[in-house]
Each structure stands twice: as structure tokens, then as C-alpha cells.
Design goal:
This protein is an alpha/beta fold. The chain has 3 domains: 75 residues, Beta Barrel (OB fold (Dihydrolipoamide Acetyltransferase, E2P)); 145 residues, Rossmann fold, CATH 3.40.50; 54 residues, no CATH class. Bound molecules: guanosine-5'-triphosphate, magnesium ion and zinc ion. Guanosine-5'-triphosphate binds next to helix 4.
Length: 305
């Protein structure tokens, strides 16, 4: 029996041509369930793909088989391209301090990639049980200078997880993103009671994760609060509009916002000293400059007053 009514839902998982959709406002509260949906072949998608995190309108709901059809896509607020997730409110870049080893260039690339969405970006350092307290404090200080208050986790210290959980419950839809083996799924299993998603030991031989999580999947934390677990990957070269790069470094954009620094040219890339008032005395400046200089496109830029 199919219900003759349309409902708004949230895509929580996607595999092949199928989507799992959770109803947003549930008329029939007795069925707190997800529907397996396919897309209606219609013009309403205008060739747009549907991703996890998307809000959709579903119809032809069959309560018995738990099947339905996605009729249309609700306008999304943002879309992260890698991993592909829509409507995110917060990004948590997850890095392990060891096993796999902390790679600062990777951390930086993850952070820059995350900053492109113009939403709040947080940094989580996992596996702090593998390093000394002195090293942990050193890392907190380092990332503080990068502009991030690193959240540090130690598997033997449940308090760390409780604090993070309290924070996550205030965010609408957070995503965990980072390399394979850093502990994204372990973290999720720690904070969602009853969840036992697969995790795997980091390979002894190559000291890398084993790509245990295969799908992007959205989990409910509490009413209307979600977390997305994603498959780990390493950051390759970033494709970035170099003119926007200063907006992706807190060391730069905080100087502009908090200290009100102004350069002679409005779109100053802060690489020449002429008319530039940015304090360049920060650790990632060399990395920033390299990114600008390795991009040919900036030679075509015209400086504007
Ligand atoms: N010592 C220690 N090991 C941890 C910690 N967190 C996770 N691990 C271990 O790290 C390994 C990898 O963890 P996963 O949670 O599978 O990592 P993941 O980031 O989900 O990896 P992918 O799904 O492959 O992207 C597992 O063996 C975990 O037990 C921690 O805080 N301390
Ligand atoms: Mg995982
Ligand atoms: Zn400047």
C-alpha cells in the first residue's frame, strides 16, 4: 500500500543508484525508519546529483517494503566536493598524532580544503595516548598559532570524548574528515551509544590505514543533530582559486578581521612587500607563499586599488 502524500527527508546514505532517506517531519511516529529510494527520472533534478546530506522530497511511500521515490531536491546550502556531502554546518579535520604519523603538510591541506566552504573548521588530534604530555602541549601550541584550538583525544580518557560530544550536540551537521586510520570511526563509535561500525588496525608494514570505511554515511546524534563519517583519503594537490587563498588561512584572515590590517591593494596576495602590511611572521607563511608561487594563474592577476 502506497501513501498518497509527499514528505521531506534527509539522505543519510548513498550506494549505487539507491539512497537511504530519513523522514524529517514524521507524521507516522510509530515508524521511525528509513526508506530505500531511487530517483524519479524527471526534470526536477536538472542533471544535479543527489548527495548524502541533501534534503529531498519523497513520494510513493510504501510502508510495508519501506521503499519510496525521490521526487525532487531541496536547495542546498553548501556542497563539500571531497568527500561529497551536502548541507554541512561544521567540519572536523581529524588527524592522528602517531600511527599514522602526523604529517603537517597533509594537515594544512585538509584545513585549507575545509576552509573553502566558509563554515566553522575544527581540528581534532587523536591517539594522544601514543605521545607524551609535553608533545601534546607542544602540538596544541603549534596549532593555536595556525589559528586552531586543537581538540585532543586519548582513547583512555572518556572525558575528552564527552566534551567533544557535548560540543557536537550543539552543531547541526558535522563531518569527520581525514586520512585513513586516524580514528574517525572509532571516535564515532565512542560517542554514539550502541554504534559498532567497523574499524581496523593500522597496517604495521606501511603504517597507513586500511580504508575500512567505504561509504559516506550520516548518523543521528540526537534530534536534528547529525555526524557524517567518511572514508579516509590523502590530500593531493589542491585546486584553489589563488585569489581566495588568504581567506583560507586564519593567520591571515584573523589579522584582517581582528587587527584591521589593510594593504595598499584591496586584493593583495601578501607576497610582495610593496604596500603590504601583513605580519608574515607565522609558521605556514612559507607554505602559503609556495602555493601562490606555484600557481601560474596569479601572474595574470591585476592588482586593484
Ligand atoms: N592508540 C590509539 N589507537 C586508536 C585511537 N583511536 C583509534 N585508534 C585505532 O586506530 C585504528 C584505525 O581506526 P579507525 O577508526 O578504523 O580509523 P578511520 O579514520 O575510521 O579509518 P578509515 O575508515 O580507513 O578512513 C583502529 O585500530 C583503532 O583502534 C586512539 O585514540 N588511540
Ligand atoms: Mg572509518
Ligand atoms: Zn598584503
Amino acid at each position: 500500500m502506497k501513501i498518497d502524500k509527499k514528505y521531506k527527508g534527509l539522505v543519510t546514505k548513498k550506494f549505487n543508484e539507491f539512497f537511504l532517506v530519513e523522514l524529517s517531519d514524521n507524521d507516522f511516529s510509530e515508524i521511525n525508519t528509513k526508506f530505500l529510494c531511487t530517483l524519479r527520472k524527471s526534470v526536477s533534478f536538472r542533471n544535479q546529483l543527489v548527495f548524502v546530506g541533501d534534503k529531498v522530497i519523497i513520494a510513493q511511500i510504501d510502508l510495508k517494503s519501506k521503499r519510496a521515490i525521490i521526487e525532487s531536491l531541496v536547495k542546498r546550502t553548501n556542497l563539500l566536493e571531497r568527500p561529497a556531502v551536502a548541507n554541512i554546518s561544521n567540519i572536523y579535520v581529524i588527524c592522528s598524532v602517531d600511527e599514522p604519523k602526523l604529517n603537517l603538510s597533509q594537515v594544512s591541506k585538509f584545513l585549507i580544503s575545509a576552509e573553502q566552504l566558509s563554515i566553522e573548521v575544527s581540528l581534532v588530534l587523536t591517539k594522544c595516548d601514543l605521545i607524551s604530555e609535553q608533545r601534546r602541549l607542544f602540538l596544541i601550541d603549534k596549532f593555536d598559532k595556525w589559528g586552531y584550538k586543537a581538540i585532543t583525544l586519548n582513547i583512555n580518557s572518556p572525558n575528552d570524548f564527552n566534551n567533544l560530544l557535548t560540543e557536537l550536540k550543539t552543531k547541526q551537521c558535522s563531518i569527520f574528515m581525514g586520512a585513513s586510520g586516524v580514528g574517525k570511526t572509532t571516535l564515532l563509535n565512542m560517542i554514539i551509544p550502541g554504534l559498532q561500525n567497523s574499524t581496523a588496525l593500522v597496517s604495521r608494514k606501511i603504517k597507513r590505514g586500511k580504508n575500512t570505511t567505504r561509504n559516506v554515511e550520516l548518523f543521528s546524534l540526537s534530534s536534528k543533530r547529525y555526524i557524517v563519517d567518511t572514508p579516509g583519503f590523502n590530500m593531493q594537490n589542491l585546486e584553489i582559486d589563488i585569489r581566495e587563498l588568504p581567506n583560507y588561512y586564519p593567520e591571515i584572515y584573523k589579522q584582517v578581521a581582528d587587527k584591521g590590517i589593510k594593504c595598499k591593494f584591496r586584493n593583495c596576495l601578501h607576497i610582495n612587500d610593496q604596500g603590504c602590511n601583513l605580519n608574515k611572521n607565522f609558521e605556514r607563511y612559507a607554505f602559503y607563499k609556495d602555493m601562490i608561487e606555484s600557481s601560474k594563474s596569479h601572474y595574470c592577476l591585476i592588482q586593484e586599488d
